[in-house]
Amino acid sequence: MHRSTLRALLLTLGGVVLVGTGVPAHAAGAPISTIAPNSAKSANQISLGGVVVPLRTIDAVSLVSGRVNFVLGSIGTRVTAGQVVVAVNNSAQMANLQEAQAELLSAQIGWQTANIQYTRQLYSPRSNNVASPMSIGPSGLFNHYFTGPFAQMAGLQDPGLDRYADTVQSKDELLLAEQQIRVAQARVANAQSALSDTDTYAPFDGVIMSKQVEVGGTVQPGSPLLVLADVSRMLVKVDVPEDLVPSMRLGQPVPITIGRTELPGIIYQIYPLAAPSTHTVPIKIMLPPGAPVASGMYATITLPGNGADGVSQSPQVAVPETALIKGYYLPCVLVVNPHTHKTEIHVLRLGETLPHGMVVVLAGLKSGDQVVLHPPAHAASGWEPGHTPHTVADRSGASSRG
């Protein structure tokens, strides 16, 4: 491209209205246009760019480790609530469950034995101090008529106290058996939960937006599985300048343009916090049911301005529509880096369209950036125009060194 043509492609940003000012031929070789700051008010409406998003989106992750045995469908597959979308091999979890169930059975048998012993102690004490006189051995006849009574008279034995001690011991053994059952039941519940975690269920009717696993792959706890979206209703998410938010309300009608289609929308959600870096507040606008849109589409909404009679008084940065690079889905321009003199792609968030082929830039550019006026289609970063303007004129006509 000829050097004089490239010189004519550079633009310096600084306000709202493009003001053409001549630069001496020996300095730039061709007139260089500059945007004068604070030169005009914007119209009584402002256009903001956003993106179409589903009503709900979840990122499913694995809760267990193992090999993937099943994945439902592919990207775009519709699923119903409660349907298994991913299944992981559950042999290890099944073995843990069987082990826990065996421990529970053992604890239940121990409780039955302890309960029988406690009941017998209540109705038929087993203390040796109350042995029958017909029994054989030291606790038999001799102990009943001679040793036992003599020990009681001497204060060496107390049958009632011995019976009480045996009863307390039997009751403690029964309580311990009950606790062992509770512990075993908890282990069974944990094992059952781990077993159920091997299957991932759809929490709502939706569509698989992306997959991160395939059958035969190995996952760990926390590994991403897939993204599921509820596309029964679609919304447009937009970052709105914070000074416009006080005039917005839930349910407020908002016109939306997606491609060449104009759709009615209503404000569905206003976030309670603003982004400190951009001073914007995200909002979501509900599209009508059955709108012919897909997640990720670029959308434009129209809002009233924030000044008197709906007119904004604040200066804004604008760019000619000819500076937008053709062939990109999102609005982009080529900005010349003042240090390397090479171009960089800047993605823009556009506002309203102004007269004379200008469009307001809400984000992506700042006053003083140098933009290529007529970039080639599908232009990429790293292009070197070969010339940086030497002189830039402000709106008063005075020139300054760039």
From TrEMBL:
Pfam families listed in its UniProt record: BSH_CzcB
Keyword terms: Signal
Gene Ontology MF term list: efflux transmembrane transporter activity
Domain CzcB-like barrel-sandwich hybrid: 58-230
Protein name: Efflux RND transporter periplasmic adaptor subunit
Family to which this protein belongs: Belongs to the membrane fusion protein (MFP) (TC 8.A.1) family.
Gene3D superfamilies listed in its UniProt record: 2.40.30.170, 2.40.420.20, 2.40.50.100, Helix hairpin bin
PANTHER family referenced in this protein's UniProt entry, alphabetically: HLYD FAMILY OF SECRETION PROTEINS (PTHR30469:SF15), MULTIDRUG RESISTANCE PROTEIN MDTA (PTHR30469)
Gene Ontology CC annotations of this record: efflux pump complex
Cleavable signal peptide: 1-27
Top-rank taxon: Bacteria
Region ranges (Disordered): 376-402
InterPro entries with a match to the protein in the record: BSH_CzcB-like, RND_pump_MFP
Record NCBIfam families: RND_mfp
